[in-house]
Amino acid sequence: MASLARSTGRRLSFGLLAAALAVSGCATEVGGRALAGGAADEQSPAAKAPAPSGDPVAEPGQCVLGSSPAPVDCAKPHHVEVTKAGTFGADLPAARPDAAVIFKAALPECRTEAAKFLGSTDFDASTLAAWMLWAPVDDWAAGDRWYRCGVAQLDPDGKAVERTGSLKGALSGEKFFEFQVCSSVKPLEAAVKRISCTEPHHAEGLRVVTMGKPGDPVPTPDEFNAAARPVCGETLTKYLGTATRDDVVATWRWPSQTEWEQGFTNLTCYAQTDVPVTKKLRNLGAAPLPVG
Questions:
Q1: 127-162 per-position pLDDT tens digit
Q2: Is pTM beyond 0.90 here?
Q3: 103 Cβ partners below 8 Å, 6+ apart?
């Protein structure tokens, strides 16, 4: 249950442990390809152990459209921009594992690459996210265990938005606010639900606070709260341009054990209101909340 404290004339809400991050929405599972041949007992050994498809896979600096890993010019419509190419090692099973295993093995690396590429570690407070693509079943079985890290812009349902142009440096400096996330629900009460910041919303993403590395123990609730309380509160004061409001509070959310192991090793700060607002609260100062 959340507790409240008063600081600098404003309530600071203590974050709740919850799965606020939709990591399953940040991947493209490339579909397997049917094998030519007859029934299983009629297939030759070569058919049972297929050769890699040889289909082109996008490299860093290229983009992909839809579920295909084929390269697309990033100046043209695409869904994901590739930031890093990699290959899974022999420590993973011979049969392609499920997404949870894939995420634990490579998503931390992809999130690190996303922060470098976007120009900020604060992308969890934005509509941008790290993304993954990896080899289809038949390529994996043939020993071609490729994966690609990428970045994408998410819609309210967590799906990649079709867009044109590169996202390189998209969150550096003031540009962060062009992609700032807003939520139709209060982060203190439930997982964030993305919504356009021009629509009625209860929260606005502010920043993240790094809490460790995937191999570290997950911090306790007290440790999360102790780290969040001063940073989220000070960030909110700067964001509003005042420290005297009591109708906007700093709230924060942190990852589950599974998400922590997959690279979500930070908490995310939000500006939250009890009533829905229709405009961003940045530099609001002493003005009334934009509720009309």
A1: 999 999 999 999 999 999 999 999 999 999 999 999
A2: no
A3: 23, 27, 132, 262, 263
Measured on CA atoms in the order 172, 178, 181, 186, is the torsion positive or negative?
positive
b/e map of 21-42 (b: 16 or more CB within 10 Å)? bbbeebbbbbebeeeeeeeeee
Contacts for 91-94 with beta carbons within 8 Å, 24 or more apart?
92/145, 94/141
User: Hey, what amino acid is at 21?
Assistant: L
Q: What is the maximal distance between C-alpha atoms in the chain?
A: 78
- Give the other-Cβ count within 10 Å of 209's Cβ: 19
- Cα–Cα distance for residue pair 94/100, rounded to 1 Å: 16
What is the tens place of the pLDDT at every residue in 42-63? 332 333 444 556 789 999 999 9
DSSP assignment letter at 275: E
- Counting Cβ atoms within 10 Å, is residue 93 exposed (0-12), middle (13-18) or buried (19+)? exposed
